[in-house]
C-alpha cells in the first residue's frame, strides 16, 4: 500500500490526536496543521507535499488546499461543505460517531481520486 502523507486540521486536540493515531497505525505519515494554535514551520513546509488533508468542517475555509480533502462534518454543517469549500472535497464523513474504518476508507479513497459520502 502506498505511503500517504496526511495533513490534519482539527480544533479539538484530543480528537485530532485520535485521528492522527488511527492514520499512523495504518502507516500514514501525519502532519499536524495547527488546529486551534499556530502551524509549525515544518507543517507549513510539508503542506505542499501532502496527499490528503483531513479537516473539521468548522476549519474547512481557513485556507485552501491543493490536495484532496476529507471533511469531518459536524451535524449543523453536514450539508454545506462542498458548496462552500475552496478546496477539492473528496469525502464527507461524520465528525460524531466516526469509526476508524470509515476514516481510513475515506482517506484512502480520496487519495485515489474517488469521492465518498457518508
Describe the structure.
This protein is α/β, with parallel strands linked by helices. It has one domain: Rossmann fold. Helix content is 30%, strand content 23%. It is built from four helices and six strands, in the order βαβαββαβαβ. Strands 2-1-3-4-5-6 form a six-stranded parallel sheet, with helices on one face. β5, α4 and β6 form a beta-alpha-beta unit. The protein starts with a strand and ends with a strand.
Distance between the termini: 24 Å
Q: Which topology does CATH recognise? A: Rossmann fold
CATH architecture: 3-Layer(aba) Sandwich
Q: How many β-strands, per DSSP?
A: 6
For the biggest sheet, the summary is:
6 strands, parallel
Query: Whole-number radius of gyration?
Result: 13 Å
In DSSP terms, counting alpha (H) and pi (I) runs of 4 or more, how many helices?
A: 4
CATH class: Alpha Beta
Q: In terms of per-residue confidence, which ranges show pLDDT below 50 for 5 or more consecutive residues?
A: none
Count of structural domains: 1
Question: Given the helix and strand composition, which structural class is it?
Answer: alpha/beta
Fourth CATH level, the homologous superfamily: Response regulator
Residues in helix, %: 25-40%
**Mean pLDDT reading:** 84
The secondary-structure element order is EHEHEEHEHE
Task: Explain the layout of strands and helices.
Blueprint: E1 5-9, H1 13-25, E2 29-32, H2 41-46, E3 52-56, E4 69-73, H3 81-84, E5 89-94, H4 100-111, E6 116-117
Parallel strand pairs: 1-2, 1-3, 3-4, 4-5, 5-6
Amino acid at each position: 500500500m502506498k505511503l500517504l502523507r496526511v495533513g490534519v486540521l482539527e480544533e479539538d486536540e484530543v480528537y485530532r490526536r485520535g485521528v492522527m493515531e488511527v492514520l499512523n497505525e495504518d502507516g500514514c505519515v501525519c502532519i499536524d496543521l495547527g488546529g486551534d494554535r499556530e502551524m509549525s514551520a515544518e507543517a507549513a513546509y510539508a503542506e505542499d507535499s501532502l496527499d490528503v488533508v483531513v479537516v473539521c468542517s468548522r476549519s474547512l475555509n481557513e485556507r485552501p488546499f491543493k490536495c484532496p480533502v476529507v471533511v469531518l462534518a459536524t451535524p449543523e454543517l453536514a450539508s454545506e461543505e462542498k458548496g462552500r469549500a475552496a478546496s477539492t472535497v473528496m469525502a464527507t464523513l461524520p465528525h460524531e460517531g466516526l469509526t476508524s474504518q470509515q476514516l481510513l476508507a475515506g482517506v484512502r479513497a480520496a487519495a485515489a481520486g474517488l469521492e465518498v459520502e457518508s
